[in-house]
Amino acid sequence: MRRTRDDIREQLLGAALVEFGAKGFDGASTRSIAQRVNAHQPQINYHFASKEALWAAAVDHLFALLGDELADLALPGGPEDPARLASAFAEAVRRFVRFAAAHPELNQIMVHEATEDSDRLRWMVDRHVRPMYEAIRAVWQRLRAAGIGAPIEPAMAHYVIVGAASLPFVNAPEARLLTGAEPTDRAWVESYADGLVATLLPGASGRPVRFSS
Amino acid sequence: MRRTRDDIREQLLGAALVEFGAKGFDGASTRSIAQRVNAHQPQINYHFASKEALWAAAVDHLFALLGDELADLALPGGPEDPARLASAFAEAVRRFVRFAAAHPELNQIMVHEATEDSDRLRWMVDRHVRPMYEAIRAVWQRLRAAGIGAPIEPAMAHYVIVGAASLPFVNAPEARLLTGAEPTDRAWVESYADGLVATLLPGASGRPVRFSS
DNA sequence: GCCTTATATTATCATCCGATAACATGAGGA
DNA sequence: TCCTCATGTTATCGGATGATAATATAAGGC
């Protein structure tokens, strides 16, 4: 009995993302990933070279999806109306929150890997994380120059934003137990995004707040 | 050649925390934990019943340390001067940030476990996380009632606060690569705590900000 | 100084893992 | 029609892991 599928690569990638996100690289097993899509474990070594290569392909795929989601943002580059800059930034945060909810695997994998230095971490940081980091830093710097946004260094603002935006979805199983709510529900996600934007940019939905220092 | 130590239990606990924080439960190996303190792997099964029991003892130990750190906060219980409530809350956030920097293992373990439902997760949530969650919820509710704090539901505020406060320390290896700074440096930690407090309570260090909704 | 008991050390087992080899099968071209 | 080659399937290997049994050794009571 032989089963052939032409989308087996994509199916394995999707299963790998879920498994790596939930269990981390070490906790995930290639046998269990294959089983998720009714495939055999050696098919992973056939379609990808190794467990590591599967992981890298899955991460590449996921960051590409994130890139698509944020591609047409066009955060204004030159000196601009602060209000327009703030609303563009708010939109970026909202999209990032939505993506974190729809694809928790990305931030789960980030957090599983970033707890220890490793080749995988360095690869992911150099290839995917640094561009995002630099973009957030640049926008935050301009928000602060415009007197919007709390007095916090751009590098630190990055961690406030990413940490806050991703935790309820990274820890969705915990959030379900703790709050009784389903953090991936559309309404929950939008409400969380609203709250986060209001926290980061208290002046954006009303009169602007100017920080003294 | 036989080696005897009366603090072997504590040494194993400390090594286990580092290992579980860095690699997660599955990625950690009892051999490597024992090796960190020049002990033999079966000593773990002797002094603790199993790998799981070691993990639980380590988590208990760590949450006890956090409890000590936050014990004397005495967040005012009755109706109070909003400014005093805000400053007590700010102090709680600062302490939590300092603890997250000094003991990244706690939030690392949380995040490793919370990506998937499991008995370990449920045990940790019921035993340790829920009390903290309820405390943050209650304080945030009163901050909002006092017109301080962004318009975000208390349950969601919990994730904003914990996510933001812990990420640069949970992901310290990533933060070192990304920012070039050492996130556990005293100055960095204090600056991060300042920035987070300023973000959460924009009115706390100057004229208060009142949110319309 | 012996004896008991707690703990350290060594040896070993069953299980699981990632990888690879060996084999089977089916689709497409000549 | 047959041959080739890509891919599915099965079997198996070496290595690591958690647990436990077996043994060794030191400390403390008498």
Features:
homodimer, 213 residues, mainly alpha, Arc Repressor Mutant, subunit A, Tetracycline Repressor, domain 2, 2 domains, 71% helix, DNA-binding
Describe what this molecule looks like in 3D.
The first copy, chain A, is an all-alpha fold. Chain A folds into 2 domains: 57 residues, Arc Repressor Mutant, subunit A (Orthogonal Bundle), CATH 1.10.10; 142 residues, Tetracycline Repressor, domain 2 (Orthogonal Bundle), CATH 1.10.357.10. Helices cover 71% and strands 0% of the residues of chain A. In chain A, α1 packs across α4, α5 runs antiparallel to α10 and α7 packs across α8. Chain A is elongated, with a radius of gyration of 20 Å. Chains A and B meet through α1, α6, α7, α8 and α9 of A and α1, α6, α7, α8 and α9 of B. Chain A binds a DNA duplex (30 and 30 nucleotides) through α3.
- Residues in helices of chain A, as a percent range: over 70%
Number of domains of chain A: 2
| Residue-averaged pLDDT of chain A | 92
Query: How far is it from the N-terminal to the C-terminal residue of chain A, by CA?
Result: 71 Å
Q: What structural class is derived from the secondary structure elements of chain A?
A: mainly alpha
Give the CATH level 1 class of the largest domain in chain A: Mainly Alpha
Named CATH architecture of the largest domain in chain A? Orthogonal Bundle
Unreliable spans of chain A: none
Oligomer description? homodimer
Write down the overall geometry of chain A: elongated
CATH fold-level label of the largest domain in chain A: Tetracycline Repressor, domain 2
* Greatest interface and its participating residue counts: A-B, 67 and 66 residues
Gyration radius from CA atoms of chain A, angstroms:
20 Å
Strand segment count of chain A: 0
Number of DSSP helical runs of chain A:
10
